[in-house]
Amino acid sequence: MTKSLLSTLTVTSRPAKASDLLSKRKERLLKKLEEQRQLAEGMINDELVVIHKEKWVTNNETGLKELKLFQRKTPKWFFLNNGTWFFEIRIGKARLEFEKNLTAIELESKEDLLESIKIIAEAIKLGELDKQIQSAETGFSKKK
Questions:
Q1: What does residue 51 show for φ and ψ, rounded to 5 degrees?
Q2: pLDDT single digits (tens) 7-18
Q3: What does the alpha-carbon distance between residue 125 and residue 27 come to, in Å, rounded to a whole number?
Q4: Which long-range contacts (CB under 8 A, 24 or more apart) does 37-45 make?
Q5: pLDDT score, position 144
């Protein structure tokens, strides 16, 4: 008797989609960090980097919806001040505080940006910044 093909698969129930605010913020923050990594890489290599967003638009001629790419203005979270590079993490327009009133990471050179972004992304995945992410005040989290 031959073994069925389906018996070779591991079948399980579908995992619940993360619906809590913290995991959504972490996911969004990781996407934004990836964009910052691309911008930093472009600056280091002296290349132009364009960040796009996808948007469904209705074609006037056919009446069908099409997925189009639009260029999106993406502010850099890193800057040069008095010969020293700094990097901030933002949630919305708010700066993430690592400690009380400490929002920036000081870097030796612009090449250190990529390593810093990688370290921060790993810290977010491991939950080391959960408290700061939860307490970050954004325009969306304020009650009216």
A1: -95, 130
A2: 888 888 888 776
A3: 9
A4: 37/114, 37/117, 37/118, 39/74, 39/76, 39/78, 40/76, 40/78, 40/110, 40/113, 40/114, 40/117, 41/114, 43/76, 43/110, 43/113, 44/110, 44/111, 44/113, 44/114
A5: 46
The CA-atom distances, in angstroms, between 42 and each of 31, 54, 84, 110, 117 are: 17, 21, 19, 11, 14
What pTM was estimated for this model as a whole?
A: 0.74
3-state secondary structure of 73: coil
What are 22's two structure tokens? Answer: 């913290």
User: What separation in angstroms does the CA of 47 have from each of 43, 95, 118?
Assistant: 6, 27, 20
φ/ψ bin of 85: left (φ > 0), alpha (ψ from -120 to 50), beta (otherwise): beta
Q: Are 133 and 26 in contact (CB under 8 A)?
A: yes
The span from the CA of 107 to the CA of 25, in Å, is 25
Indicate if the pLDDT at residue 139 is higher than 60: no
Range 122-144 average pLDDT: 77
pLDDT digits (tens, 9 = 90+) for 73-107: 889 999 999 999 999 999 888 888 888 889 999 99
